[in-house]
Design a protein that fits this description.
The chain is α/β, with parallel strands linked by helices. The protein has one domain: P-loop containing nucleotide triphosphate hydrolases (Rossmann fold, 3-Layer(aba) Sandwich). 34% of the residues lie in helices and 24% in strands. The strands form 2 sheets. Strands 6-7-8-3-9-10 form a 6-stranded mixed β-sheet, with helices on both faces. A hairpin with a 5-residue loop joins β1 and β2.
Length: 251
């Protein structure tokens, strides 16, 4: 289904201070794939996400979502099809109630209020926080804020979910609840994270970024057990696989 495909072609981005953050990255992500983008701090993961979402625009190369080139002119349509959940939910929640935060996107696209209500309630039900719809976002727990931020994206009914460090700062129970939620979604998922155990469990494919370039791209089950590759890229194999007969790695 090419209309759901995300394609990056020879992407380059240099910050004004001369730092080359992305250096010739190319890949395709097809409908229904769950892809982890991993790498050490400063590898270029966050810059890559901002280029995918049109927050930044490349110095060279192009990003296509469903065969539509990401430009300032096409951004409104792109952001209906590709929704991003930021690392810090407080960057995404700014209204007086959870309901209004989740309704903000559909209202911004001038949908009728009846349709807005339908989407909001459906999104809140999907993430399991319908009972919190009238609560102030700042009174929610970290896990509840994360769920509300995801609902605010789901209300736009995107084809592709982009998530930056979704399990960051969550306690173990909230982390497990979020992982179950993400695993239940049929959306295409693009996830950047240092939580490699989560990536190993949720993502069938992993792209390893090092110094703004792709160091490896393939099945997560093969990439994350490659101790030499992980070490060369400033990473470690998932804790769940250490001391395990599959990879032979010892703590």
């Amino acid at each position: 289904m090419s209309h759901h495909m995300t394609e990056v072609k020879d992407l380059h981005y240099v910050y004004p201070d001369g730092h080359k953050a992305v250096n010739g990255i190319s890949f395709k992500i097809h409908h229904g794939e769950s892809v982890g983008i991993i790498g050490a701090n400063g590898a270029g993961k966050s810059t890559l996400l901002m280029l995918l979402m049109g927050v930044l625009f490349p110095c060279q190369g192009e990003v296509l979502v469903g065969e539509v080139l990401v430009t300032k002119k096409t951004l409104p349509g792109i952001r209906q099809r590709m929704g991003m959940v930021f690392q810090d939910p407080d960057d995404q929640l700014f209204m007086t109630t959870v309901y209004d935060d989740v309704a903000f996107g559909p209202r911004n696209y001038n949908l009728e209020e009846k349709e807005v209500e339908k989407r909001v309630l459906q999104a809140l039900e999907m993430v399991g926080i319908l009972h919190l719809k009238d609560r102030a976002p700042f009174k929610l727990s970290g896990g509840e804020k994360r769920a509300a931020a995801i609902a605010s994206v789901l209300s736009l009914q995107p084809d592709i979910l982009v998530m930056d460090e979704p399990t960051s700062a969550l306690d173990p129970k909230s982390r497990r609840r979020l992982m179950k939620l993400l695993d239940s979604f049929e959306h295409t998922k693009i996830i950047t994270s240092h939580d490699l155990d989560m990536v190993y469990e949720l993502c069938d494919r992993s792209i390893v970024i090092k110094d703004g370039e792709i160091a490896a791209d393939g099945p997560t089950s093969k990439i994350l057990v490659d101790a030499d590759l992980m070490d060369a890229c400033g990473l470690e194999i998932p804790l769940a696989l250490q001391n395990c007969p599959v990879c032979g790695r010892k703590k």
